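User:
Care to share a sequence and structure tokens?

Assistant:
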Amino acid sequence: MVVQRLDIHRRDRGERACVTLAGAIGPVTAPLLRAALNQCLRDGVTAIDVDLTTVGSCDSTGLDVFLVASRYADRVHASVRLHHPCAQITQLFAGTDSAWLLSGIPEARASADVQHDMGDPANAPVVRAGIRLRRLTRQQTQDMSGDIADLAAEPVAWLSAQAYRDRGGFLRWLAANARRPGFALVVAETTVLVGCAFGFPIGPGARSERELQESVQRLTGRAHFLFLTQVVAPHHAQRRDIGHRLQQRLLADRHTALGVTLLLATDKGGQAAFESWGWENCGEMVGMPGRGAPRVLELFPSDRPRRPGKR
């Protein structure tokens, strides 16, 4: 009896992992393959390329491993693609309508938006304590908008003057924000989405936010800032750390020395959450439409000292 053997070698490059296999994939070796693919996803890999050049055979148990891994990857917005299969593997996948997993064609050139984001070191994924932070492109934001809306249904706190409690309103608001110049959105993920923060820069000359810009400049002495809105998973055990990391990542990503948000004075729970994340109250903004005058809160990068006079 021939004992099956499968050697597995993994090489990471950013968010992509190349998994090279050598041997045979069957009932004995399939659990090893499953463990290797699952580990890639747990580590925050978003693109898994499996090199089958030196794999002599694969049976239905191996096919099932790849199909399950692909479905799981799709749920966390990742992908699994198989390269250089032998004739037997190609026939197996074609005969089971699974040929879409196979890729013998080089990847298409990325869009200008994706190329720009990948070229910026600030967009590299950061993994800590099992939670990965990564910035989304506008297209990725659109693709994930439904998941973000689900997360926003029960936020810990809203970093905005108006809370959109219906799903449709939130989706329209997110889409409108995504069209603004300089828009940036960062998500926190485990195997699912657990947090999200986004914002856009405001400076002199901003017509739609002129009143906000002038009020912030009067209260803080700064003309340029990043206006943030944030959603944090309400029941995650690390939600405080997630919120802090998301906000600091946005400031670093946009190379901004000041983050600003608005919060109603009656929102005591929100104020407590913001204070735990390092936000400071710098005064009320009068003249805004709606109920009550929102407070302007400011946030500085962690590596910068607080302004004189702040506790």
